[in-house]
Design goal:
Radius of gyration: 20 Å
Number of domains: 1
Strand order of the largest sheet: 1-11-10-9-8-7-5-2
Shape: globular
Structural class: alpha/beta
CATH topology: TIM Barrel
Strand content: 5-15%
Distance between the termini: 26 Å
CATH class: Alpha Beta
């Protein structure tokens, strides 16, 4: 994975806004209105244009925008996760709400257990705001049918991931680029569905790790950078009601970190980056666990670079954590310095300020400026691209300050 000794590089966290034509392609495919050749031709063109647009906006380390992960409307918070439902064998759609069908004993080894999304502590605490369509609190309006594991997990997404890889590599070549990253869901987030087959949650977790490892290997074997998306490492905290002790939560989460490290065993760590966030929906996040309580777990994940939220108003102050943390010599950080959480486009001077703070903590060569989370499905496309341009401009200003 590229780093720089003479300037601040830029990247983004994965999801980028899908063009309306691509959303319509996904809808038509689901309804049987187009054949597979038409679909793939349209997605190929969209990804090639996307890579070129990232380059024009000033993004150095580009991604495929998660365009192979289907969405049917502009506002969609779940495609980064729900795509895995079609790539894993052993899952069946269920009629019951999430986490109401888990069979007896499946969570017997857990000190704490996840509740449904509707019973998150922030959702309960701000129920009036969530119920008011004029409040500005926004969640995805697209229905999501959650599956249940009712058989041995297997990876069945080879055709889909190979198509994603092939189109992205063509797009990189067409735009004169050699390096790009693709995202894949990590085991902790992948396993946040009901399990009726495995005898324990830990057994199910490791089954997810083994199955998804095939996707991780495919991306790396193709010469691309792998980004592991795992909001569950931080976000699960709010999805445990009542609130657990920090010690119990860290034990609960460390098992998920260990499963992830198991999944990427023997893979080249210098080609892997990890993304952590506290959930990307537009709503209150007053229950978020502080970064200070998570940073040791984050750094125990055996990868090259760490992406995390640092630009939104709930977490911007946490740059101070890195004053007290020793970042291992071979690691990079990719803090979010523009945010999905606001429609305000950040001023480049503010972006530069944020970058410089981190550089002064861990070293200028070890910071890659990024976005808080994926911008696709979270802010209007016009705003998303304006934010990426502000990111690039801010990185230039930070470079002038850090390499005078």
């Amino acid at each position: 994975m590229r780093s720089s000794t003479d300037r601040i590089l830029t990247t983004q966290a994965g999801s980028l806004p899908r063009p309306d034509a691509l959303i319509e392609l996904n809808r038509s495919r689901a309804e049987g209105g187009i054949d597979e050749q038409q679909f793939h031709s349209g997605v190929n063109q969209a990804v090639t244009e996307l890579v070129g647009r990232q380059r024009s906006a000033g993004v150095d380390l580009v991604g495929d925008g998660e365009f192979g992960k289907s969405v049917s409307q502009r506002v969609d918070y779940g495609a980064w996760w729900s795509y895995s439902f079609q790539r894993l064998g052993g899952l069946e759609l269920a009629d019951a709400p999430l986490f109401e069908t888990t069979h007896e004993g499946a969570r017997a080894t857990e000190e704490v257990a996840l509740t449904s999304f509707g019973n998150r502590r922030d959702r309960v605490g701000f129920a009036e705001a969530y119920a008011d369509p004029t409040s500005g609190v926004e969640v995805s309006t697209s229905p999501m049918n959650f599956p249940v594991c009712r058989g041995p997990l297997t990876y069945v997404g080879h055709e889909a991931i190979n198509a994603d890889i092939a189109r992205f590599k063509r797009a990189l070549e067409a735009n004169g680029l050699e390096e790009g990253f693709m995202t894949a869901i990590a085991p902790a987030s992948c396993s946040r569905i009901d399990n009726e087959y495995y005898d324990s949650q830990e057994e199910f977790l490791y089954a997810c790790a083994e199955a998804m490892r095939e996707e991780y290997k495919a991306i790396i074997d193709a010469g691309l950078i792998l980004q592991l998306d795992d909001p569950a490492i931080a976000e699960n905290w709010d999805q445990i009601n009542p609130e657990p002790s920090v010690a119990d939560y860290k034990r609960f989460t460390m098992r998920r970190v260990e499963a992830l490290n198991h999944a990427i065993r023997d893979l080249p760590k210098d080609r892997i980056r990890f993304h952590l966030c506290w959930g990307s929906w537009h709503g209150p996040h007053t229950t978020d666990l502080p970064m200070r309580d998570l940073v040791d777990l984050l750094l125990s994940i055996d990868v090259r670079a760490y992406s995390f939220e640092a630009g939104n108003v709930r977490h911007e102050h946490e740059w101070k954590v890195w004053q007290d943390v020793t970042l291992p010599d071979d690691k990079l950080i990719m803090p979010g310095v523009v945010s999905h959480a606001t429609n305000v486009v950040e001023h480049p001077e503010l972006v530069a300020d944020r970058i410089v703070r981190f550089a002064e903590c861990v070293g200028r060569e070890r910071v890659v400026a990024s976005t808080d989370c994926g911008l696709g499905g979270r802010v209007h496309p016009q705003l998303a691209w304006a934010k990426l341009e502000a990111l690039a401009s801010g990185a230039e200003l930070a470079t002038e300050r850090l390499w005078p």
